Amino acid sequence: MIRILVVDDEPHLRRTLGANLRARGYTVDLAESGERALELATTNKPDAVILDLGLPGKSGMEVIRSLRHWTTIPIIVLSARDTEFDKVGALDAGADDYVAKPFGMGELLARLRASLRRPSADDETPQVVTPDFTIDLSHNKILNDAGEIRLTPTEWHLVEILVRNTGRLVSSKELLQSVWGPEYGQETNYLRVHFAHIRRKLEPEPSRPRYFHTEQGKGYRFEPLAPC
């Protein structure tokens, strides 16, 4: 089942969108705020997001940027803001499409179907190969010569975020909020503990990491090495 996350602070519109999407066979999660949207996205891993920009608390633009740190799923903005400035800002932040309110349900559903048909970056790069292991993003697996390396769900989520941002420093706050939720941001000891486990499982020399690097006080970065 394709899962859609609908994020809007208008209760009537949330219910209407939810009913229309469910009637067409989609599984639907509804969020009334940016914070709740990130919680549901982290937990339920939707296939697409329909998002209002004007949200209480964390704004729609902040939600787009947070999601783009770890996922390439389609994001369709549905907003009463219809100026070119707003549209360009949302698309530059990482949205895939922009529909202005008021809107036609048929048009929105057609845009959603089109977004879901587009190949994602996940489809294009399903595997990352290093000299010591292969990360299979399509099947949530890490393999080496001895077989599958088992990670906990939290460990896998951290690895996946870094791999999808290969070569880029991902801040500790971004990792904490993506994995544990938007109310987190200072609990860097969580990351130290989990990355110690990840390195013991994946690094040839955990005390001298080749792949999962820490930038003290800033965050973490994944750097694959070219196979020999």
Architecture blueprint of SSEs:
Elements: E1 3-7, H1 11-23, E2 27-31, H2 34-44, E3 48-51, H3 60-68, E4 75-79, H4 84-93, E5 97-100, H5 105-117, H6 121-124, E6 127-129, E7 134-136, E8 141-144, E9 147-148, H7 153-164, E10 170-171, H8 172-180, H9 188-202, E11 212-215, E12 219-222
Parallel strand pairs: 1-2, 1-3, 3-4, 4-5
Antiparallel strand pairs: 6-7, 7-8, 8-9, 10-12, 11-12
Helix pairs in contact: 2-3, 2-8, 7-9
What's a concise summary of this model?
This protein is α/β, with parallel strands linked by helices and 228 residues long.
String of helices and strands? EHEHEHEHEHHEEEEHEHHEE
User: What would the principal axes of the Cα set say about the shape?
Assistant: elongated
Give start-end ranges of low-pLDDT stretches: none
> How many individual β-strands?
12
Q: CATH homologous superfamily of the largest domain, by name?
A: Response regulator
The structure class reads alpha/beta
Count of discrete domains? 2
Under CATH at level 1, the class of the largest domain stands as Alpha Beta
Strand content range: 15-25%
- Main sheet overview: 5 strands, parallel
CATH topology grouping of the largest domain: Rossmann fold
CATH hierarchy: architecture of the largest domain: 3-Layer(aba) Sandwich
